[in-house]
């Protein structure tokens, strides 16, 4: 039937009159166009090869399911092979045929289940026999274990090395020496016969019933017996003992603590190190002990964790601890006071190698001059930590510039901690500017920054520079926390320590972003370069000079008088060496140029020029390998440039950086992310964090204020 015979099909319209004339003008190319525009013909067309190929590409019915079943499995009816997994609904006859097939298959499944049960039973029997055989073989292999042939003396040495390395042994089965006795009876016998493994003990008293402390006596008595039994196993070995007390200091509690401390008194001749976190009034059992009673004492650590009513009281050294005075072998001395204060005993300062002093309110000396005079006698001191008072309530003398230089010839580690805005006599600058440590390897300057109005104390960075110039030390690690970053001062300090391997700078007053920054906020940050950017430029290998101008567009439109009102941070002058007059150093540190921060004060002009002085040709800190810096508002791209300059194409004499950690108060830049991923893929240990909002949605949840989640 032709298309014209079908009433549902409308015949196509004839071509327009211009059709033939256009075709004639196209000449030889008219055939293709004519074929495209020719109306469909009623005559069937012969199918060519191309049409056949196209037909083969068209989707067809799903292929028949190939039967991969074995001969003994009933073959499924071929009638339904193309209807499986479809929505086809079989008729009654087909249902009967399908049921017949399913019934035959179920019979076969029953046979298979029976066979599987037989095989599983056989497998269980074989597994049981293998387990029995393996148990017998393991027992025989244990007989020929090389560990059995180790002499007890070797095992004793191994047991000693199993003890915790960073704290005294605890009374728990998860650690040696208690763990060693849980392995086997032989190991238990050897561990009990090894005094060295019982020569250290950390004592944690039982909890005290605060409503009725006397009811805790039974628990303390059991603890006392355990401590006594433990330490008696140590034989004649020197003892390392630590004790922590978190209860109160009432009379009944003092008695409970004394019941345990009394066990230690008969063994005082073997005390090697004592570490007590106990109120000093608890040491009544030690009254009467003298220096002669503690001939082996090498280390003493005391932490008075009391809370007295009189927080500014300064106590005398207690009579119960007089044995620590002039101890012949004392090398390590640590004293921490959370409240009040105490005067130090006449300990043998010249033989100390480690000194740790910390006080929150009143320090252990009347002023910094007395402290420096005391430190000057520590000729063998290798590690010194001074954590100055943090409270405003202490009745301490006001800051006064001190000129009392001392030399600590053996000092390797120095840590100075204190609030930089509390300008009393113990301001850290008085300590740093008067120290000379020619062997110093590690320097830590910690605390909280701040500079109150009218302050006369110098910036700590200037004091650090003075220390480094005096000492000319091979410093390897520098850790600075919450210090105002003056780029010129900081770079000048780094220039003095080319041996630096690790640089850590943390600023805990980081700006926190609460949402996507507005365009005007971003523009305000981009118009100026923060101090961290200048430091990054200085540390980037290959840059000869870094100079950044910070100014507002409106200020540029001002007259010359406005230009003269700008504040400029100039490079600080060279400080004298250890042999020069320290008064010149103090004058330089107090100059106005050196006390300016990278952010201009509110009353100053809004236009500030920050400059890092031209650098010598040699790279800054060529041995730097570990970099940990809180970069806040610094440029992420500058940070990547810094990393790249110390990771790729290194010049001769510059070490490759190994570890990079930093924190940005910004959202992560995609380009920076890609560069850091590349560095990590190449092996760099890089850890970068961003302080971003917890939730980008600024609108509160519709369920806010309801009792439970939606």
List keywords for this structure.
alpha/beta, coiled coil, three-stranded mixed sheet, 19 helices, LRR_dom_sf, single chain, 710 residues
In short:
This protein is of the alpha/beta class and 710 residues long.
Please explain how this structure is put together.
The model is unreliable at 6-10, 25-37, 39-69, 510-527 and 545-610 (pLDDT under 50). The chain contains 19 helices and 21 strands. Among the domains are: 1-38, no CATH class; 70-144; 348-554 and 611-710, Leucine-rich repeat, LRR (right-handed beta-alpha superhelix), CATH 3.80.10. With 710 residues, the chain is of the alpha/beta class. The protein has a 14-stranded parallel sheet with strand order 1-2-3-4-6-8-9-11-13-14-15-19-20-21. It has a three-stranded mixed sheet with strand order 16-18-17, with no helix packed on it. The protein is extended, with a radius of gyration of 42 Å. InterPro entries: LRR_dom_sf. Keywords: Coiled coil. Residues 35-52, 551-567 have a biased composition (Basic and acidic residues). Residues 580-608 have a biased composition (Low complexity).
- Uncertain regions: pLDDT < 50 for 5+ in a row? 6-10, 25-37, 39-69, 510-527, 545-610
Instruction: Give the second-level CATH assignment, the architecture of the domain at 348-554 and 611-710.
Output: Alpha-Beta Horseshoe
- Strand tally is 21
For the biggest β-sheet, the strand order reads 1-2-3-4-6-8-9-11-13-14-15-19-20-21
Overall geometry comes to extended
Gyration radius, to the nearest Å?
Answer: 42 Å
Strand content: 5-15%
- Supply the number of helical segments: 19
Oligomer: single chain
Mean pLDDT: 78
InterPro entries: LRR_dom_sf
Biased composition (Pro residues): 9-18
Keywords: Coiled coil
Coiled coil: 109-136
């Amino acid at each position: 039937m032709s298309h014209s015979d079908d009433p549902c099909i409308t015949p196509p319209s004839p071509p327009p009159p211009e059709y033939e004339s256009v075709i004639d003008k196209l000449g030889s190319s008219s055939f293709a166009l004519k074929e495209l525009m020719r109306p469909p013909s009623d005559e069937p067309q012969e199918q060519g090869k191309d049409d056949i190929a196209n037909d083969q590409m068209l989707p067809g019915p799903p292929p028949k399911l190939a039967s991969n079943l074995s001969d003994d499995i009933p073959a499924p009816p071929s009638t339904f092979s193309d209807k499986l997994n479809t929505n086809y609904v079989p008729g009654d006859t087909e249902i009967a045929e399908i049921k017949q097939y399913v019934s035959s298959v179920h019979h076969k499944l029953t046979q298979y289940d029976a066979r599987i049960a037989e095989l599983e039973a056989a497998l269980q029997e074989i597994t049981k026999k293998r387990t029995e055989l393996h148990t017998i073989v393991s027992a025989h292999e244990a007989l020929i274990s090389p560990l059995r042939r180790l002499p007890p003396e070797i095992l004793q040495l191994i047991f000693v090395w199993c003890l915790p390395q960073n704290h005294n042994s605890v009374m728990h089965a998860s650690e040696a020496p208690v763990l060693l006795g849980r392995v086997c009876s032989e190991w238990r016998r050897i561990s009990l016969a090894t005094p060295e493994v019982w020569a250290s003990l950390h004592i944690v008293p039982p909890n005290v019933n605060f409503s009725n402390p006397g009811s805790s006596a039974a628990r303390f008595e059991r603890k006392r017996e355990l401590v006594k039994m433990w330490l008696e196993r140590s034989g004649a070995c020197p003892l390392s003992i630590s004790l922590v007390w978190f209860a109160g200091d009432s009379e009944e509690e003092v008695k409970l603590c004394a019941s345990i401390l009394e066990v230690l008194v008969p063994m005082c001749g073997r005390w090697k190190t004592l570490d007590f976190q106990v109120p000093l009034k608890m040491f009544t059992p030690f009254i009467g002990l003298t220096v002669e009673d503690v001939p082996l004492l090498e280390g003493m650590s005391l932490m008075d964790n009391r809370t007295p009513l009189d927080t500014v009281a300064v106590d005398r050294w207690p009579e119960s601890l007089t044995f620590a005075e002039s101890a012949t072998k004392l090398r390590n001395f640590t004293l921490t006071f959370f409240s009040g204060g105490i005067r130090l005993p006449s300990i043998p300062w010249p033989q100390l190698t480690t000194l740790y002093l910390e006080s929150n309110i009143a320090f252990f000396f009347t002023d910094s001059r007395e402290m420096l005079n005391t430190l000057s006698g520590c000729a063998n001191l290798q590690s010194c930590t001074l954590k100055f008072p943090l409270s405003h309530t202490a009745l301490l003398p006001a800051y006064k510039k001190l000129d009392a230089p001392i030399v600590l010839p053996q000092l390797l580690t120095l840590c100075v901690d204190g609030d930089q805005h509390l300008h009393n006599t113990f301001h850290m600058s008085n300590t740093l500017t008067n120290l000379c440590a020619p062997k110093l390897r590690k320097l830590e300057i910690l605390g909280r920054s701040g500079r109150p109005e009218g302050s006369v104390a110098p910036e700590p960075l200037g004091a650090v520079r003075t220390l480094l110039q005096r000492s000319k030390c091979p410093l390897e690690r520098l850790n600075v926390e919450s210090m105002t970053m003056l780029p010129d001062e900081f770079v000048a300090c780094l220039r003095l320590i080319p041996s630096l391997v690790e640089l850590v700078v943390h600023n805990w007053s980081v700006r926190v972003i609460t949402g996507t920054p507005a365009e005007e906020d971003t523009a305000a940050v981009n118009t100026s370069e923060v101090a961290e950017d200048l430091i990054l430029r200085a540390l980037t290998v290959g840059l000869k000079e870094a100079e950044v101008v910070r100014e507002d567009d409106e200020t540029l439109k001002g007259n010359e008088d406005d230009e003269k009102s700008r504040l400029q941070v100039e490079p600080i002058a060279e400080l004298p060496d250890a042999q020069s007059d320290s008064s010149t150093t103090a004058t330089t540190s107090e100059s106005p140029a050196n006390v300016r921060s990278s952010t201009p004060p509110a009353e100053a002009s809004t236009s500030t020029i920050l400059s890092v002085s031209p650098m010598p040709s040699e790279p800054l800190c060529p041995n730097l390998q570990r970099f940990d810096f809180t970069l806040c508002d610094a440029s992420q791209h500058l940070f990547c440039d810094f990393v790249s300059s110390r990771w790729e194409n290194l010049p001769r004499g510059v070490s490759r950086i190994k570890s990079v950690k930093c924190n940005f108060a910004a959202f992560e830049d995609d380009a920076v992310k890609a560069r850091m991923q590349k560095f990590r893929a190449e092996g760099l240990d890089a850890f970068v964090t961003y302080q971003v909002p917890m939730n980008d949605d600024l609108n509160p949840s519709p369920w806010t204020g309801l009792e439970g989640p939606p």
